[in-house]
Design a protein that fits this description.
Blueprint (H helix, E strand, L loop, with lengths): L2 E5 L4 H12 L3 E6 L7 H10 L4 E4 L5 H10 L4 E4 L6 H6 L1 H21 L4 E7 L22 H19 L4 E7 L1 E3 L18 H9 L6 E4 L11 E2 L1 E3 H15 L5 E6 L5 E2 H12 L5 E4 L8 E2 L4 H7 L7 H14 L14
Parallel strand pairs: 1-2, 1-4, 2-3, 4-5, 5-6, 6-11, 7-10, 8-13, 9-14
Antiparallel strand pairs: 9-12
Bound molecules: nicotinamide-adenine-dinucleotide and uridine-5'-diphosphate.
Length: about 350
């Protein structure tokens, strides 16, 4: 049985990936400093799977503490989710983003080298493509970033490419996620943002549950079919499965590989809004606002490479994503802090 270290495993994508790993009979160790999550998510993962997770509350920037995990366990591979991820916040606090995202990842790579762990899956993002010349976006498109968060991802991709160039026995997957939404169909785990959500789906579900008055749609004058921004929304459970498929690829001694993980389909803000209205069975208030600075008109993936080389194909539709996001929000109106709720298994 292989042992996988999941950094940032208590977070949104990490917790769903832990479910997938445990269901595939991997041993799972999680390292998370809980700066954007809580341990309850891991308890829920254990409840969904009926299996245990070994948890270390450690900051990956603290190398000496992190090394303990490598000394105490025989690790076969690492999935490195730990990082700060809010674009707007990264513009306001660039140093925190560079420190956290760069140092944590450099520590991981160095400890992998020291303790002979040869396989790494790294969370990259579609943000490394900037404003693409055309859609769909292929992996060999030019890379260009416009904010500190994106720059941390591109810098780290560069670091990993340089490292892999001279360390041919290391296997590294750079996974560029498009827009993850949805939640585990059990309604037990999902996205639990702190404060006012920046992203579309958690904002819509908070309007639907009555926490926010209306959805502000950032512009309806883009060159897209209905004028609102188009993105490639992918169910977080599909994304989680993509990580397990990437791991299997690494175990064939693949060297460095790069994949887009999305659905290959673009949906507009209004498509998502309509999908959510169908899921909850009532209208959701919205207002058209100015464009959000830095937003692009459209962004969706070609997932042909991930399909050909990993067998990855998203299975969930936008309707499924909306249903599962709503199911999570409705069962957990205050995220993991919700008390006395009825949990549907
Ligand atoms: P998340 O914030 O829910 O999860 C990240 C986890 O990392 C959190 O549990 C946080 O507590 C932990 N963490 C942060 N810094 C840490 C550190 N120094 N040491 C230990 N733990 C630390 O975010 P997510 O949406 O699950 O994203 C996971 C990864 O995927 C991130 O690297 C993010 O940049 C990347 N990504 C996310 C999206 C998205 O839209 N959610 C899109 C593209 C890429
Ligand atoms: N969006 C919106 N209102 C919101 C949040 C997002 O209209 O409150 C739009 C945004 O302009 C973009 C799409 O929804 O077209 C997805 O935005 P999100 O921030 O979720 O992802 P990203 O822009 O990073 O792809």
């Amino acid at each position: 049985m292989k042992t996988i270290l999941v950094t940032g495993g208590a977070g949104y994508i990490g917790s769903h990936t832990c479910v997938e790993l445990l269901n595939e009979n991997y041993n799972v160790i999680v390292v998370d400093n809980l700066c954007n999550s809580c341990e309850e998510s891991l308890k829920r993962v254990e409840r969904i799977t009926g299996k245990n997770i070994k948890f270390y509350k450690i900051d990956c920037c603290k190398k000496r503490l992190l090394e303990k995990v490598f000394v105490e366990n025989k690790i076969d591979a690492i999935i490195h989710f730990a990082g700060l991820k809010a674009v707007g916040e990264s513009v306001k606090m660039p140093l925190e983003y560079y420190q956290n995202n760069l140092i944590s990842t450099l520590n991981i790579i160095d400890l992998m080298r020291k303790h002979d762990v040869k396989s790494l899956v790294f969370s990259s993002s579609a943000t490394v493509y900037g404003d693409p010349k055309s859609v769909p976006i292929y992996e060999d498109f030019d890379l260009k970033v416009t904010n500190p968060y994106g720059r941390t991802k591109l810098m780290l991709e560069d670091v990993l490419r340089d490292f892999a160039n001279v360390n041919k026995d290391f296997n590294i997957a750079l996974l560029r996620y498009f827009n993850p939404i949805g939640a585990h169909p059990s309604g037990l785990i999902g996205e639990d943002p702190n404060g006012i959500p920046n992203n579309l789906m958690p904002y819509i579900t908070q309007v639907a549950i009555g926490k926010r008055e209306f959805l502000g749609i950032f512009g309806n004058d883009y060159n897209t079919p209905d004028g609102t921004g188009v993105r490639d929304y992918v169910h977080v459970c599909d994304l989680a499965r993509g990580h397990v498929l990437a791991l299997k690829k690494l175990f064939t001694n693949s060297g460095l590989v790069t994949y887009n993980l999305g659905t290959g389909k673009g949906s507009s803000v209004l498509d998502v809004l309509k999908g959510m209205e169908k899921a909850c069975g009532f209208e959701i208030k919205y207002k058209i606002l100015e464009r959000r600075p830095g937003d692009i008109a459209q962004c969706y993936a070609s997932c042909d490479k991930a399909y050909k080389e990993l067998g990855f194909k998203a299975q969930y539709s936008l309707e499924d994503m909306c249903r599962d996001s709503w199911n999570w929000q409705k069962n957990n109106p205050n995220g993991y802090k919700t008390k006395n709720k009825i949990l549907v298994k």
